[in-house]
Amino acid sequence: MTRGQDWTYDSLPGLLESWPDAVVVVDDDEEIVLVNAATEALFGYSREDLIGQSADVLSLRRRDGRDFEVDISLHPFDTAVGTFVLSVIRDVTERRRLERDARHFIAVVESSSDAIIGTDLDGLVVLWNRGAESLYGYAGAEMLGRSLSVLVPPGNDDELPELLRRVRIGERVDHHETVQARKDGIQVEVSLTMAPIRDDEQGVVGVATTARDISARVATSSSSASSPSTTP
């Protein structure tokens, strides 16, 4: 194809070869006249397969038939040999999947009746769900950036630093029963599970805490233990 051969010696192909996104240039007949290496990698076709073909051959589907999600930007431009459209195509399949997973995770967290709390390694709150609002009486806006130490009643000052220390070294703390303080000052019996939040290199970067109100269970157990036994 003559135009395809002309483009080979133009400055544009060399520039586009270093582009990280797929780039496809079509002429005014909607035939492909230029693609870059990222296009070959993304769609699974060689440029020899694509040059001279209708742009419909791509149809946002890889050569093996797999669909994927993309962002496309179109840039028409005029040259001495005609009008062309440069399409920049970015695969966003993984990004969209992560966004969907994040929305799903947030929905699950917000619907939980348990308190779910995310903190950094120093115990400063970065996530506070509705269950935490209900259990402790603090709104999320009140707790973001605030230390979990606000929940520690007098006399338990050493407990939180020790729990955080254990999680920082990678330990998971399961069903730790303790007493914590609500915003209104009422103390509540809770069962805490604390687990490390890890980054891609498996380093510990935060703490995920789940707290469950066990006051009713503790009261029942205490009542049973204190009830006098009867003998026939």
What does this structure look like?
It contains nine helices and nine strands. The longest helix has 19 residues, at 93-111. A five-stranded antiparallel beta sheet has the order 6-5-9-8-7, sandwiched between helices. With 232 residues, the protein is an alpha+beta fold.
Beta strand %: 25-35%
Taking all Cα atoms into account, the compactness measure Rg is 30 Å
**Any idea what the CATH superfamily of the largest domain is called?**
PAS domain
Number of distinct helices: 9
Please name the CATH topology of the largest domain: Beta-Lactamase
> How confident overall, as mean pLDDT?
88
Distance between the termini: 106 Å
Unreliable residue stretches: 1-9
The H-and-E topology, N to C, reads as HHEEHHEEHEEHHHEEEH
**Helical content class:** 25-40%
Q: Give me the CATH architecture of the largest domain, please.
A: 2-Layer Sandwich
Spatially, the strands of the biggest sheet line up as 6-5-9-8-7
| Shape by Cα distribution | rod-shaped
**Oligomeric form:** single chain
Number of domains: 2
Biggest pleated sheet: 5 strands, antiparallel
Q: Mind telling me the CATH class of the largest domain?
A: Alpha Beta
What structural class should be given to the helix and strand makeup?
alpha+beta
How many extended strands? Answer: 9
